[in-house]
Amino acid sequence: MLDKTKKDWWKSAVFYQVYPKSFQDTDGDGIGDIPGIISRLDYLEKLGIDGIWLSPVYASPQRDNGYDISDYRDIHPPFGTMADMEELIAEADRRGITIIMDLVLNHSSDQHSWFLSAKADKNSPYHDFYIWRDGAPDCPPNDMRATFGGPAWSYVPEIGQWYFHQFSPWQPDLNWANPAMRRELYDMIRFWVDKGVGGFRLDVIDNIGKEPDNQITCNGPKLHEYIRELRREAFREDTLVTVGEAWSANVDLARLYAEPGGSELSMIFQFEHMCVDYGRDKWDARPLPLVKLKECFQRWQTGLAGRGWNSLFLENHDLPRIVSAWGDDKKYRVESAKMLAAMCHGMQGTPYIYQGEEIGMTNIRLPIGEYDDLEIHNAYREGLARGETPERVMEGIYAKGRDNARTPMQWTDGEYAGFSAAKPWLPVNPNHSEINVRAALADPDSVFYFYQKLIALRKKYPVFREGGFTLLNPEDENVFAYVRDTEEERLLVVCNFTMWEQPEVCPAAFRGAEVLAANYKDPGGPLRPYEARMLYVKS
Ligand code: GLC
């Protein structure tokens, strides 16, 4: 077990993201809940993870599945009670698992008492907790657009003002220029630290320094000043792990957020690697350009070495299932899921596994009316309005829609996949008859045991944490191969990204090397479809 009293313990850790609504239902309402998470802790302990990033469980009208918080100090009733949450923290802790909560500090719900008061009365002490501009009802302050569609400003006739919302009208942006607002957030964070939470994932943190008047959303001039204040005032303990979601980050910016002195955050989630297959936008998905992906990882691996810290991930609740996106979710599902895992977990950084990734869950295709996500419905409306055919718009949604990752966790081949006794809030993927935890646990060659092995290897060999990174054959469009090395150890990771045989990649130093992990028996010779090899030598 990791020594979590050490300042940088999270550099050796592996995290697992739980999306509560879809993980495990225990009270038969078709919605996952906190007692459900508790009931699956033994499973997560078996996988070997050190921490859970818990997507929001706070009180919320759920317009954006909890990323719209109406009370930061209370639990959404369908998920359970505060007592359940305390039990989760304690039960996880007993198994050496730290709970990392999601913190949505950029905006609240429009049903938060602060906003209700702010929009009812210009003189309310909470009015200035949000971003308001005067203006005529038909004339928004500027033409900024909201991420989930429509204008980024909404009008409140009662007070004759517009409020700013980067995401949706139900998610008004908090005004970080107001010190009283910031103080409320810091006190709230301390409330959770006092409950035993071990860290936080900071939702869209690159947005908090926004200047709407200058049309600046991300990377505003005061962003890092605010984050440093957060660190001083709220994340006081060096042992708290903090990971900021920053879609706008590049390597230089990441060095600011995650500088080794610890004045800001432990690490960030950056998304450059997840965007390499975007065309015009994310809905316009293209085949994976492997050379570009390799170049991207190389830049992050070498750029943050000794000057920051990477997070490593291929999935989360906003992204498609990686085996469907970059692997083969049919004939070579198991092989390609393991290959992608090896590619990711061999690098330097802290890995995050998204629920179901460890059993190779796949994307789903639903009729538009069966999707829940507001972003999907908006993309559909906007696509048709642009004159695209419904078929073409649906292709984008099948490839990139967020509900791909949000279908219920597949525990068994039984009704509703063992997720719930009732019809779930979002359809279960019909392939749960084959892809499920029970089957994975019964098969020693399953994707699950491959992840378990990768987690154990990271704990055993310092090269995973410490080693430098060298990309081999950067121009090869089919195989991703790299070496990690320290003075004592060398690790070679070779991944065939195609369903065709590819020439062997094995530098002389690795001839006869120990095989740490592989997704085929007897690794050696040409690479088989989606083959992955991890070889190790002492130098
Ligand atoms: C983040 C979350 C996403 C949410 C958005 C607005 O990107 O991951 O799920 O919709 O922020 O809060």
Radius of gyration: 23 Å
**What is the helix content?**
25-40%
Q: Determine the N-to-C terminus distance.
A: 27 Å
In terms of structural class, how would the helical and strand content be classed? alpha/beta
Indicate the mean pLDDT: 98
Give the distinct bound molecules: alpha-D-glucopyranose
Q: What strand order characterises the main sheet?
A: 11-10-9-5-2-1-13-12
Q: DSSP helix count?
A: 15
Rough shape? globular
Strand residue percentage: 15-25%
Q: Report the biggest beta sheet as strand number plus sense, adding barrel if it closes.
A: 8 strands, parallel
Task: Describe what this molecule looks like in 3D.
The chain has 539 residues and is an alpha/beta fold. Helix content is 27%, strand content 15%. The protein has helices spanning 34-39, 41-47, 82-94, 113-120, 179-194, 223-233, 251-257, 290-304, 322-325, 333-345, 374-385, 390-400, 437-442, 447-460, 462-466, and strands at residues 15-18, 51-54, 58-59, 71-75, 98-103, 132-134, 153-156, 161-164, 199-202, 241-245, 267-269, 311-312, 350-354, 468-472, 479-485, 489-496, 514-518, 532-538. It has an eight-stranded parallel beta sheet. The protein has a five-stranded antiparallel beta sheet with strand order 14-15-16-18-17. The protein has a three-stranded antiparallel beta sheet with strand order 6-8-7, with no helix packed on it. Strand 10 (241-245), helix 7 (251-257) and strand 11 form a beta-alpha-beta unit. Helix 10 runs parallel beside helix 14 (447-460). It is globular. The relative contact order is 0.10. Bound molecules: alpha-D-glucopyranose. Alpha-D-glucopyranose binds next to loops.
